Amino acid sequence: PANPKSGQPMSDLVAQILAETGSSPAAGDAAQPAYVPGSKRCCWSKAHPSDDPLDDIVNGLVAHALGDKQPCTVCPHSASSEEVAVSDDEATTLGDGVFASMDEAVAAAELAQRQYLFCTMAARKRFTDGIREVILSNGTLERISHMAANDTGMGNAAHKIIKNRLACEKTPGIEDLTTDALSGDEGLTLVEYSPFGVIGAICPTTNPTETIICNAIGMLAAGNAAVFSPHPRAKKVSLLVVKLINRKLATLGAPANLVVTVQEPSIDNTNAMMNHPKVRMLVATGGPGIVKTVMSTGKKAIGAGAGNPPVVVDETADIEKAARDIVNGCSFDNNLPCIAEKELIAVNQIADYLIAEMQKCGAYLIKDPALVKKLEALVINDKGGPQTSCVGKSATYLLDKIGVKAGNDVKIILIETDKDHVFVQEELMMPILPLVRAPGVDDAIDLAVELEHGNRHTAMMHSTNVRKLTKMAKLIQTTIFVKNGPSYAGLGVGGEGYTTFTIAGPTGEGLTSAKSFARKRKCVMVEALNVR
Ligand code: NAD
User: Which of 263, 358, 415, 455 can pair with 363 through a Cys bridge, CB separation 3.0 to 4.6 Å?
Assistant: First the structure.
Protein backbone atom coordinates (compact mmCIF):
# COMPACT_ATOMS: atom_id res chain seq x y z
CA PRO A 1 0.00 0.00 0.00
CA ALA A 2 1.08 3.58 -0.61
CA ASN A 3 0.56 6.77 1.37
CA PRO A 4 -2.36 8.41 -0.43
CA LYS A 5 -0.93 11.85 0.33
CA SER A 6 2.60 11.36 -0.94
CA GLY A 7 2.14 8.31 -3.12
CA GLN A 8 5.20 6.87 -1.39
CA PRO A 9 5.05 3.06 -0.93
CA MET A 10 4.48 2.01 2.67
CA SER A 11 7.64 -0.13 2.72
CA ASP A 12 9.68 2.94 1.75
CA LEU A 13 8.04 4.92 4.53
CA VAL A 14 8.96 2.27 7.05
CA ALA A 15 12.54 2.16 5.78
CA GLN A 16 12.76 5.94 5.90
CA ILE A 17 11.51 6.06 9.48
CA LEU A 18 13.89 3.36 10.55
CA ALA A 19 16.74 5.26 8.95
CA GLU A 20 15.67 8.44 10.75
CA THR A 21 15.86 6.70 14.07
CA GLY A 22 19.16 5.06 13.35
CA SER A 23 17.52 1.67 13.58
CA SER A 24 16.81 -1.04 11.13
CA PRO A 25 14.57 -4.07 11.41
CA ALA A 26 17.68 -6.20 11.32
CA ALA A 27 19.09 -4.37 14.30
CA GLY A 28 16.40 -5.98 16.41
CA ASP A 29 16.33 -5.51 20.14
CA ALA A 30 19.77 -3.97 20.36
CA ALA A 31 18.78 -0.90 18.32
CA GLN A 32 18.00 2.21 20.32
CA PRO A 33 15.88 4.74 18.42
CA ALA A 34 17.08 8.29 18.75
CA TYR A 35 14.62 11.07 19.31
CA VAL A 36 14.39 13.36 16.30
CA PRO A 37 13.54 16.86 17.59
CA GLY A 38 10.28 18.08 16.13
CA SER A 39 9.28 14.59 15.13
CA LYS A 40 6.15 13.02 16.55
CA ARG A 41 7.82 9.65 16.28
CA CYS A 42 9.73 9.79 19.51
CA CYS A 43 8.65 6.44 20.80
CA TRP A 44 7.99 3.70 18.31
CA SER A 45 6.92 1.12 20.76
CA LYS A 46 4.31 3.54 22.02
CA ALA A 47 3.17 4.40 18.49
CA HIS A 48 2.47 7.97 19.48
CA PRO A 49 -0.65 9.37 17.88
CA SER A 50 -0.51 11.86 15.09
CA ASP A 51 -2.90 13.87 12.98
CA ASP A 52 -2.59 11.38 10.16
CA PRO A 53 -4.04 7.91 10.87
CA LEU A 54 -1.59 6.51 8.36
CA ASP A 55 1.26 7.63 10.58
CA ASP A 56 -0.20 5.46 13.33
CA ILE A 57 -0.20 2.46 11.01
CA VAL A 58 3.40 3.15 10.05
CA ASN A 59 4.32 3.56 13.71
CA GLY A 60 2.73 0.23 14.43
CA LEU A 61 4.67 -1.47 11.63
CA VAL A 62 7.90 0.05 12.84
CA ALA A 63 7.20 -0.97 16.41
CA HIS A 64 6.64 -4.46 15.16
CA ALA A 65 9.81 -4.45 13.08
CA LEU A 66 11.79 -3.37 16.11
CA GLY A 67 10.40 -6.18 18.16
CA ASP A 68 8.28 -3.66 20.06
CA LYS A 69 10.84 -3.46 22.82
CA GLN A 70 12.28 0.00 22.40
CA PRO A 71 12.19 2.15 25.49
CA CYS A 72 11.01 5.71 25.01
CA THR A 73 13.69 8.32 25.45
CA VAL A 74 11.48 11.35 25.93
CA CYS A 75 8.25 10.39 27.61
CA PRO A 76 7.91 10.84 31.39
CA HIS A 77 8.48 7.82 33.62
CA SER A 78 10.15 5.82 30.89
CA ALA A 79 13.13 4.93 33.02
CA SER A 80 14.67 1.65 32.09
CA SER A 81 14.64 0.48 35.71
CA GLU A 82 11.78 -1.85 36.53
CA GLU A 83 11.39 -0.33 40.01
CA VAL A 84 8.45 2.01 40.37
CA ALA A 85 7.15 3.75 43.45
CA VAL A 86 4.33 6.08 44.42
CA SER A 87 4.43 7.71 47.85
CA ASP A 88 1.31 8.08 50.00
CA ASP A 89 1.34 11.83 49.35
CA GLU A 90 1.52 11.35 45.60
CA ALA A 91 -1.29 8.79 45.51
CA THR A 92 -4.12 11.26 45.01
CA THR A 93 -2.36 13.93 42.96
CA LEU A 94 -3.02 14.38 39.25
CA GLY A 95 -0.95 12.47 36.69
CA ASP A 96 -0.04 8.84 35.99
CA GLY A 97 -3.58 7.98 34.96
CA VAL A 98 -5.38 10.20 37.50
CA PHE A 99 -7.42 13.00 35.88
CA ALA A 100 -9.37 16.00 37.16
CA SER A 101 -12.48 15.19 35.15
CA MET A 102 -14.12 12.13 33.66
CA ASP A 103 -14.04 13.76 30.21
CA GLU A 104 -10.26 14.08 30.37
CA ALA A 105 -9.87 10.55 31.70
CA VAL A 106 -11.97 9.03 28.92
CA ALA A 107 -10.26 11.12 26.22
CA ALA A 108 -6.84 9.98 27.45
CA ALA A 109 -7.96 6.35 27.58
CA GLU A 110 -9.35 6.58 24.05
CA LEU A 111 -6.07 7.91 22.72
CA ALA A 112 -4.16 5.21 24.58
CA GLN A 113 -6.39 2.50 23.18
CA ARG A 114 -5.88 3.76 19.63
CA GLN A 115 -2.13 3.51 20.13
CA TYR A 116 -2.52 0.14 21.82
CA LEU A 117 -4.14 -1.28 18.66
CA PHE A 118 -0.70 -1.29 17.06
CA CYS A 119 1.12 -3.04 19.89
CA THR A 120 1.95 -6.70 19.44
CA MET A 121 0.45 -9.54 21.45
CA ALA A 122 3.92 -9.95 23.00
CA ALA A 123 3.66 -6.37 24.20
CA ARG A 124 0.21 -6.98 25.64
CA LYS A 125 1.63 -9.92 27.57
CA ARG A 126 4.53 -7.82 28.80
CA PHE A 127 2.17 -5.08 29.98
CA THR A 128 -0.23 -7.41 31.78
CA ASP A 129 2.71 -9.24 33.35
CA GLY A 130 3.95 -5.79 34.42
CA ILE A 131 0.69 -5.18 36.28
CA ARG A 132 1.16 -8.47 38.14
CA GLU A 133 4.79 -7.64 38.93
CA VAL A 134 4.27 -4.12 40.20
CA ILE A 135 1.69 -5.26 42.74
CA LEU A 136 3.68 -8.30 43.82
CA SER A 137 6.95 -6.42 44.37
CA ASN A 138 8.40 -3.98 46.91
CA GLY A 139 5.89 -4.77 49.64
CA THR A 140 3.07 -3.30 47.53
CA LEU A 141 0.79 -6.26 48.18
CA GLU A 142 0.99 -5.66 51.93
CA ARG A 143 0.76 -1.89 51.55
CA ILE A 144 -2.39 -1.83 49.41
CA SER A 145 -4.06 -4.55 51.49
CA HIS A 146 -3.57 -2.65 54.75
CA MET A 147 -4.55 0.62 53.09
CA ALA A 148 -7.76 -0.91 51.68
CA ALA A 149 -8.76 -2.26 55.10
CA ASN A 150 -7.96 1.07 56.79
CA ASP A 151 -9.57 3.32 54.18
CA THR A 152 -12.81 1.39 53.90
CA GLY A 153 -12.93 0.31 57.55
CA MET A 154 -13.82 -3.16 56.30
CA GLY A 155 -12.22 -6.55 56.14
CA ASN A 156 -9.03 -8.18 57.27
CA ALA A 157 -5.71 -6.99 55.82
CA ALA A 158 -4.07 -10.44 56.02
CA HIS A 159 -6.89 -11.93 53.96
CA LYS A 160 -6.77 -9.02 51.52
CA ILE A 161 -3.11 -9.91 50.89
CA ILE A 162 -4.27 -13.38 49.82
CA LYS A 163 -6.96 -11.91 47.57
CA ASN A 164 -4.65 -9.36 45.93
CA ARG A 165 -1.99 -12.01 45.35
CA LEU A 166 -4.65 -14.23 43.82
CA ALA A 167 -5.74 -11.46 41.43
CA CYS A 168 -2.12 -10.99 40.34
CA GLU A 169 -1.26 -14.64 39.95
CA LYS A 170 -4.42 -16.33 38.71
CA THR A 171 -6.17 -13.79 36.47
CA PRO A 172 -5.91 -15.08 32.89
CA GLY A 173 -3.98 -13.01 30.33
CA ILE A 174 -3.70 -13.15 26.54
CA GLU A 175 -3.77 -16.96 26.52
CA ASP A 176 -7.50 -16.63 27.14
CA LEU A 177 -8.01 -15.24 23.63
CA THR A 178 -8.19 -18.22 21.34
CA THR A 179 -8.63 -17.92 17.57
CA ASP A 180 -10.94 -20.06 15.46
CA ALA A 181 -9.98 -20.74 11.85
CA LEU A 182 -12.41 -22.13 9.26
CA SER A 183 -11.13 -23.11 5.83
CA GLY A 184 -12.71 -24.58 2.72
CA ASP A 185 -13.27 -24.15 -1.01
CA GLU A 186 -14.31 -20.58 -0.46
CA GLY A 187 -11.15 -19.54 1.32
CA LEU A 188 -10.16 -18.90 4.92
CA THR A 189 -12.05 -17.27 7.76
CA LEU A 190 -10.57 -16.23 11.07
CA VAL A 191 -12.72 -15.56 14.10
CA GLU A 192 -10.79 -13.58 16.66
CA TYR A 193 -11.39 -11.81 19.95
CA SER A 194 -11.08 -8.10 19.35
CA PRO A 195 -11.18 -5.21 21.84
CA PHE A 196 -14.27 -3.15 22.62
CA GLY A 197 -12.17 0.02 22.95
CA VAL A 198 -12.61 1.99 26.16
CA ILE A 199 -14.27 0.06 28.98
CA GLY A 200 -15.79 1.76 32.02
CA ALA A 201 -15.35 -0.40 35.12
CA ILE A 202 -17.14 0.27 38.41
CA CYS A 203 -15.52 -1.29 41.47
CA PRO A 204 -16.93 -2.27 44.88
CA THR A 205 -15.73 -1.19 48.32
CA THR A 206 -15.46 -4.81 49.32
CA ASN A 207 -12.72 -5.75 46.81
CA PRO A 208 -11.44 -2.33 45.70
CA THR A 209 -7.89 -3.22 44.66
CA GLU A 210 -8.53 -6.82 43.65
CA THR A 211 -11.14 -5.69 41.14
CA ILE A 212 -8.84 -3.06 39.59
CA ILE A 213 -5.98 -5.57 39.28
CA CYS A 214 -8.15 -8.36 37.90
CA ASN A 215 -10.14 -6.15 35.50
CA ALA A 216 -7.03 -4.27 34.32
CA ILE A 217 -5.23 -7.53 33.45
CA GLY A 218 -8.26 -8.98 31.63
CA MET A 219 -9.24 -5.77 29.84
CA LEU A 220 -5.71 -4.93 28.71
CA ALA A 221 -5.06 -8.52 27.64
CA ALA A 222 -8.05 -8.15 25.34
CA GLY A 223 -6.64 -4.93 23.87
CA ASN A 224 -8.81 -2.39 25.67
CA ALA A 225 -8.13 0.68 27.78
CA ALA A 226 -9.88 0.81 31.17
CA VAL A 227 -11.49 3.73 32.97
CA PHE A 228 -12.03 2.84 36.61
CA SER A 229 -14.74 4.27 38.81
CA PRO A 230 -13.83 3.29 42.36
CA HIS A 231 -16.07 3.58 45.40
CA PRO A 232 -15.40 6.98 47.06
CA ARG A 233 -14.55 5.23 50.34
CA ALA A 234 -11.73 3.36 48.62
CA LYS A 235 -10.42 6.43 46.80
CA LYS A 236 -6.84 6.65 48.01
CA VAL A 237 -5.90 3.02 47.58
CA SER A 238 -7.66 2.80 44.21
CA LEU A 239 -5.82 5.85 42.88
CA LEU A 240 -2.56 4.45 44.23
CA VAL A 241 -3.06 1.18 42.33
CA VAL A 242 -3.93 3.04 39.10
CA LYS A 243 -0.77 5.16 39.45
CA LEU A 244 1.47 2.19 40.19
CA ILE A 245 0.11 0.41 37.13
CA ASN A 246 0.66 3.48 34.92
CA ARG A 247 4.21 4.00 36.09
CA LYS A 248 5.02 0.36 35.57
CA LEU A 249 3.48 0.34 32.10
CA ALA A 250 5.48 3.45 31.20
CA THR A 251 8.73 1.65 32.02
CA LEU A 252 7.62 -1.10 29.66
CA GLY A 253 6.98 1.28 26.77
CA ALA A 254 3.19 1.03 26.88
CA PRO A 255 0.97 3.83 25.61
CA ALA A 256 0.31 6.26 28.46
CA ASN A 257 -3.10 6.13 30.16
CA LEU A 258 -4.27 2.63 29.32
CA VAL A 259 -5.64 2.52 32.87
CA VAL A 260 -7.19 5.71 34.18
CA THR A 261 -9.45 7.14 36.86
CA VAL A 262 -10.55 10.48 38.31
CA GLN A 263 -9.11 12.33 41.27
CA GLU A 264 -12.51 12.55 43.03
CA PRO A 265 -14.55 9.38 42.50
CA SER A 266 -18.26 10.10 42.99
CA ILE A 267 -21.68 9.00 41.81
CA ASP A 268 -21.70 11.99 39.43
CA ASN A 269 -18.39 10.90 37.92
CA THR A 270 -19.63 7.32 37.60
CA ASN A 271 -22.72 8.60 35.81
CA ALA A 272 -20.55 10.76 33.53
CA MET A 273 -18.49 7.69 32.68
CA MET A 274 -21.53 5.53 32.00
CA ASN A 275 -23.03 8.17 29.70
CA HIS A 276 -19.81 9.05 27.88
CA PRO A 277 -20.17 8.21 24.17
CA LYS A 278 -16.53 7.07 23.93
CA VAL A 279 -17.05 4.37 26.58
CA ARG A 280 -18.14 1.33 24.58
CA MET A 281 -18.63 -1.21 27.35
CA LEU A 282 -19.53 -1.04 31.04
CA VAL A 283 -18.56 -3.52 33.71
CA ALA A 284 -20.23 -3.11 37.10
CA THR A 285 -19.00 -5.11 40.06
CA GLY A 286 -21.26 -4.22 42.96
CA GLY A 287 -24.73 -4.40 44.40
CA PRO A 288 -28.07 -4.73 42.58
CA GLY A 289 -28.52 -0.95 42.14
CA ILE A 290 -25.41 -0.35 40.06
CA VAL A 291 -25.88 -3.56 38.08
CA LYS A 292 -29.41 -2.47 37.10
CA THR A 293 -28.11 1.00 36.22
CA VAL A 294 -25.44 -0.25 33.79
CA MET A 295 -27.89 -2.67 32.22
CA SER A 296 -30.27 0.18 31.46
CA THR A 297 -27.71 2.39 29.69
CA GLY A 298 -28.26 0.79 26.31
CA LYS A 299 -24.54 -0.07 26.12
CA LYS A 300 -22.96 -3.47 26.23
CA ALA A 301 -22.85 -4.13 29.97
CA ILE A 302 -21.48 -6.82 32.23
CA GLY A 303 -23.23 -6.92 35.59
CA ALA A 304 -21.53 -8.73 38.46
CA GLY A 305 -24.04 -8.36 41.25
CA ALA A 306 -24.87 -9.43 44.75
CA GLY A 307 -24.93 -12.97 46.05
CA ASN A 308 -26.42 -14.69 49.08
CA PRO A 309 -24.48 -17.94 49.00
CA PRO A 310 -26.02 -20.84 50.91
CA VAL A 311 -24.02 -23.78 52.22
CA VAL A 312 -25.74 -27.14 52.62
CA VAL A 313 -24.45 -29.96 54.86
CA ASP A 314 -26.06 -33.38 54.63
CA GLU A 315 -25.75 -36.53 56.74
CA THR A 316 -23.11 -38.09 54.47
CA ALA A 317 -20.61 -35.21 54.82
CA ASP A 318 -17.30 -35.28 56.66
CA ILE A 319 -18.74 -33.12 59.45
CA GLU A 320 -15.45 -32.13 61.12
CA LYS A 321 -14.04 -30.90 57.80
CA ALA A 322 -17.30 -29.22 56.82
CA ALA A 323 -17.32 -27.34 60.15
CA ARG A 324 -13.76 -26.13 59.61
CA ASP A 325 -14.33 -25.14 55.97
CA ILE A 326 -17.54 -23.26 56.75
CA VAL A 327 -16.00 -21.25 59.60
CA ASN A 328 -12.94 -20.42 57.49
CA GLY A 329 -14.97 -19.52 54.39
CA CYS A 330 -17.50 -17.44 56.31
CA SER A 331 -14.82 -15.49 58.20
CA PHE A 332 -12.57 -14.86 55.16
CA ASP A 333 -12.00 -11.08 54.91
CA ASN A 334 -14.74 -10.74 57.56
CA ASN A 335 -17.30 -12.21 55.12
CA LEU A 336 -16.90 -9.38 52.58
CA PRO A 337 -16.44 -11.59 49.51
CA CYS A 338 -19.64 -11.95 47.52
CA ILE A 339 -18.89 -15.70 47.36
CA ALA A 340 -18.59 -16.20 51.15
CA GLU A 341 -20.99 -18.46 53.06
CA LYS A 342 -23.99 -16.31 54.07
CA GLU A 343 -26.40 -18.94 55.46
CA LEU A 344 -26.06 -22.55 56.53
CA ILE A 345 -28.68 -25.24 55.93
CA ALA A 346 -27.99 -28.38 57.90
CA VAL A 347 -29.84 -31.67 57.72
CA ASN A 348 -31.44 -32.22 61.13
CA GLN A 349 -29.68 -35.55 61.73
CA ILE A 350 -26.21 -33.93 61.87
CA ALA A 351 -27.08 -30.35 62.89
CA ASP A 352 -26.17 -30.64 66.59
CA TYR A 353 -22.87 -32.35 65.85
CA LEU A 354 -22.05 -29.77 63.17
CA ILE A 355 -22.73 -26.91 65.61
CA ALA A 356 -20.49 -28.51 68.24
CA GLU A 357 -17.68 -28.97 65.70
CA MET A 358 -18.04 -25.40 64.47
CA GLN A 359 -17.73 -24.13 68.04
CA LYS A 360 -14.40 -25.96 68.25
CA CYS A 361 -13.20 -24.09 65.14
CA GLY A 362 -14.06 -20.54 66.23
CA ALA A 363 -17.86 -20.21 65.99
CA TYR A 364 -19.45 -18.30 68.87
CA LEU A 365 -22.99 -19.67 69.30
CA ILE A 366 -25.63 -17.19 70.51
CA LYS A 367 -28.68 -18.97 71.90
CA ASP A 368 -30.21 -16.20 74.00
CA PRO A 369 -33.08 -14.64 71.93
CA ALA A 370 -32.57 -11.27 73.65
CA LEU A 371 -28.93 -11.21 72.54
CA VAL A 372 -29.94 -12.13 68.98
CA LYS A 373 -32.36 -9.14 69.05
CA LYS A 374 -29.54 -6.93 70.26
CA LEU A 375 -27.36 -8.11 67.38
CA GLU A 376 -30.20 -7.45 64.93
CA ALA A 377 -30.61 -3.92 66.28
CA LEU A 378 -26.86 -3.38 65.83
CA VAL A 379 -26.35 -4.72 62.32
CA ILE A 380 -29.65 -4.07 60.51
CA ASN A 381 -30.53 -0.56 59.34
CA ASP A 382 -33.95 1.16 59.13
CA LYS A 383 -34.52 -0.17 55.61
CA GLY A 384 -33.95 -3.75 56.73
CA GLY A 385 -30.53 -4.03 55.07
CA PRO A 386 -27.02 -4.29 56.51
CA GLN A 387 -25.79 -1.36 58.61
CA THR A 388 -22.83 0.03 56.62
CA SER A 389 -20.78 0.68 59.76
CA CYS A 390 -20.94 -3.04 60.60
CA VAL A 391 -20.19 -4.45 57.12
CA GLY A 392 -16.83 -6.22 57.03
CA LYS A 393 -16.24 -5.93 60.78
CA SER A 394 -14.83 -8.88 62.75
CA ALA A 395 -16.92 -11.21 64.90
CA THR A 396 -15.14 -10.01 68.06
CA TYR A 397 -15.89 -6.37 67.16
CA LEU A 398 -19.60 -7.11 66.66
CA LEU A 399 -19.79 -9.19 69.84
CA ASP A 400 -18.10 -6.45 71.81
CA LYS A 401 -20.76 -3.98 70.58
CA ILE A 402 -23.49 -6.16 72.10
CA GLY A 403 -21.61 -6.58 75.35
CA VAL A 404 -19.97 -9.96 74.78
CA LYS A 405 -16.23 -10.22 75.35
CA ALA A 406 -14.86 -12.97 73.14
CA GLY A 407 -11.33 -14.21 72.59
CA ASN A 408 -9.42 -13.61 69.38
CA ASP A 409 -9.96 -17.25 68.41
CA VAL A 410 -13.61 -16.39 67.70
CA LYS A 411 -14.07 -16.08 63.94
CA ILE A 412 -17.82 -16.12 63.36
CA ILE A 413 -21.10 -15.62 65.21
CA LEU A 414 -23.47 -18.56 64.80
CA ILE A 415 -27.20 -18.40 65.50
CA GLU A 416 -29.93 -20.96 64.89
CA THR A 417 -33.06 -19.54 63.30
CA ASP A 418 -35.75 -20.06 60.67
CA LYS A 419 -35.58 -19.29 56.98
CA ASP A 420 -37.48 -15.99 57.21
CA HIS A 421 -35.02 -14.34 59.57
CA VAL A 422 -33.40 -11.19 58.19
CA PHE A 423 -29.91 -12.70 58.71
CA VAL A 424 -30.90 -15.51 56.33
CA GLN A 425 -32.62 -13.42 53.70
CA GLU A 426 -30.20 -10.47 53.53
CA GLU A 427 -26.64 -10.39 52.25
CA LEU A 428 -24.99 -9.02 55.42
CA MET A 429 -21.29 -9.22 54.53
CA MET A 430 -20.44 -9.75 58.22
CA PRO A 431 -19.18 -12.92 59.91
CA ILE A 432 -22.66 -13.78 61.23
CA LEU A 433 -23.88 -17.17 60.07
CA PRO A 434 -27.52 -18.18 60.56
CA LEU A 435 -28.19 -21.92 60.63
CA VAL A 436 -31.51 -23.31 59.42
CA ARG A 437 -32.41 -26.97 59.90
CA ALA A 438 -33.96 -29.10 57.16
CA PRO A 439 -35.59 -32.51 57.67
CA GLY A 440 -33.65 -34.13 54.81
CA VAL A 441 -31.16 -33.36 52.05
CA ASP A 442 -33.80 -32.75 49.36
CA ASP A 443 -35.52 -30.15 51.57
CA ALA A 444 -32.11 -28.60 52.28
CA ILE A 445 -31.39 -28.28 48.55
CA ASP A 446 -34.82 -26.74 47.84
CA LEU A 447 -34.30 -24.24 50.63
CA ALA A 448 -30.81 -23.35 49.36
CA VAL A 449 -32.26 -22.65 45.89
CA GLU A 450 -34.91 -20.40 47.46
CA LEU A 451 -32.43 -18.49 49.63
CA GLU A 452 -29.97 -17.90 46.79
CA HIS A 453 -32.73 -15.65 45.40
CA GLY A 454 -31.94 -16.48 41.77
CA ASN A 455 -28.70 -14.48 41.86
CA ARG A 456 -26.91 -17.35 40.06
CA HIS A 457 -23.85 -16.42 42.10
CA THR A 458 -22.30 -19.01 44.45
CA ALA A 459 -23.29 -22.01 46.56
CA MET A 460 -21.51 -24.67 48.60
CA MET A 461 -22.40 -28.22 49.57
CA HIS A 462 -20.74 -30.69 51.90
CA SER A 463 -21.75 -34.24 51.04
CA THR A 464 -20.29 -37.49 49.80
CA ASN A 465 -23.45 -38.38 47.91
CA VAL A 466 -22.61 -37.58 44.29
CA ARG A 467 -26.23 -37.77 43.22
CA LYS A 468 -27.24 -35.10 45.71
CA LEU A 469 -24.23 -32.93 44.85
CA THR A 470 -25.26 -33.18 41.20
CA LYS A 471 -28.88 -32.45 42.03
CA MET A 472 -28.01 -29.29 43.91
CA ALA A 473 -25.58 -28.11 41.23
CA LYS A 474 -28.26 -28.54 38.57
CA LEU A 475 -31.06 -26.89 40.51
CA ILE A 476 -29.20 -23.92 41.97
CA GLN A 477 -27.59 -22.80 38.69
CA THR A 478 -24.93 -20.69 40.41
CA THR A 479 -21.81 -19.50 38.56
CA ILE A 480 -19.66 -21.07 41.29
CA PHE A 481 -20.56 -24.29 43.09
CA VAL A 482 -18.03 -25.54 45.63
CA LYS A 483 -18.23 -29.14 46.79
CA ASN A 484 -16.61 -30.11 50.09
CA GLY A 485 -14.52 -26.99 50.50
CA PRO A 486 -14.61 -23.41 51.77
CA SER A 487 -16.17 -20.78 49.49
CA TYR A 488 -12.80 -19.24 48.64
CA ALA A 489 -11.81 -22.47 46.85
CA GLY A 490 -14.24 -21.21 44.20
CA LEU A 491 -12.05 -18.13 43.74
CA GLY A 492 -8.97 -20.30 43.31
CA VAL A 493 -7.57 -20.33 46.88
CA GLY A 494 -7.09 -24.03 47.58
CA GLY A 495 -9.17 -24.88 44.51
CA GLU A 496 -8.12 -25.49 40.91
CA GLY A 497 -8.65 -22.99 38.14
CA TYR A 498 -8.29 -19.34 37.32
CA THR A 499 -9.67 -16.49 39.37
CA THR A 500 -11.99 -13.60 38.76
CA PHE A 501 -13.27 -10.85 41.02
CA THR A 502 -16.10 -10.03 38.62
CA ILE A 503 -18.59 -12.88 38.72
CA ALA A 504 -21.32 -11.96 36.31
CA GLY A 505 -24.47 -13.93 37.12
CA PRO A 506 -27.07 -11.33 36.04
CA THR A 507 -25.70 -10.80 32.52
CA GLY A 508 -24.55 -14.38 32.03
CA GLU A 509 -20.80 -14.09 31.40
CA GLY A 510 -20.28 -15.93 34.67
CA LEU A 511 -16.55 -16.14 35.42
CA THR A 512 -15.24 -13.14 33.51
CA SER A 513 -11.81 -13.19 31.89
CA ALA A 514 -10.08 -11.47 28.96
CA LYS A 515 -12.48 -12.93 26.40
CA SER A 516 -15.46 -11.45 28.26
CA PHE A 517 -14.01 -8.02 27.49
CA ALA A 518 -13.69 -8.72 23.77
CA ARG A 519 -15.98 -9.10 20.77
CA LYS A 520 -15.81 -11.89 18.25
CA ARG A 521 -14.89 -10.55 14.82
CA LYS A 522 -14.58 -12.34 11.53
CA CYS A 523 -11.93 -11.82 8.86
CA VAL A 524 -12.82 -13.53 5.60
CA MET A 525 -10.28 -14.20 2.82
CA VAL A 526 -12.23 -15.34 -0.23
CA GLU A 527 -10.94 -18.14 -2.48
CA ALA A 528 -7.41 -18.12 -1.10
CA LEU A 529 -5.16 -19.30 1.70
CA ASN A 530 -6.96 -22.61 1.84
CA VAL A 531 -4.22 -25.21 1.46
CA ARG A 532 -6.24 -28.39 1.93
P1 NAD B 1 -22.29 -0.86 45.90
O2 NAD B 1 -23.32 -1.33 44.94
O3 NAD B 1 -22.72 0.02 47.01
O4 NAD B 1 -21.16 -0.05 45.12
C5 NAD B 1 -20.49 -0.60 44.00
C6 NAD B 1 -19.96 0.52 43.13
O7 NAD B 1 -21.05 1.16 42.48
C8 NAD B 1 -19.23 1.61 43.89
O9 NAD B 1 -18.14 2.06 43.13
C10 NAD B 1 -20.26 2.70 44.03
O11 NAD B 1 -19.67 3.96 44.15
C12 NAD B 1 -21.04 2.55 42.75
N13 NAD B 1 -22.44 2.92 42.85
C14 NAD B 1 -23.36 2.39 43.67
N15 NAD B 1 -24.55 2.95 43.46
C16 NAD B 1 -24.39 3.86 42.46
C17 NAD B 1 -25.25 4.76 41.78
N18 NAD B 1 -26.54 4.87 42.07
N19 NAD B 1 -24.74 5.54 40.81
C20 NAD B 1 -23.43 5.47 40.48
N21 NAD B 1 -22.56 4.63 41.10
C22 NAD B 1 -23.03 3.84 42.08
O23 NAD B 1 -21.56 -2.15 46.44
P24 NAD B 1 -20.40 -2.29 47.52
O25 NAD B 1 -20.97 -2.20 48.88
O26 NAD B 1 -19.27 -1.42 47.18
O27 NAD B 1 -19.99 -3.79 47.24
C28 NAD B 1 -20.69 -4.86 47.76
C29 NAD B 1 -21.68 -5.44 46.79
O30 NAD B 1 -21.04 -5.83 45.60
C31 NAD B 1 -22.31 -6.70 47.36
O32 NAD B 1 -23.66 -6.76 46.99
C33 NAD B 1 -21.51 -7.80 46.70
O34 NAD B 1 -22.16 -9.04 46.62
C35 NAD B 1 -21.28 -7.22 45.35
N36 NAD B 1 -20.09 -7.79 44.72
C37 NAD B 1 -20.28 -8.62 43.65
C38 NAD B 1 -19.18 -9.19 43.05
C39 NAD B 1 -19.35 -10.12 41.90
O40 NAD B 1 -18.34 -10.50 41.31
N41 NAD B 1 -20.55 -10.53 41.53
C42 NAD B 1 -17.89 -8.91 43.51
C43 NAD B 1 -17.75 -8.04 44.59
C44 NAD B 1 -18.86 -7.48 45.18
Answer: 358
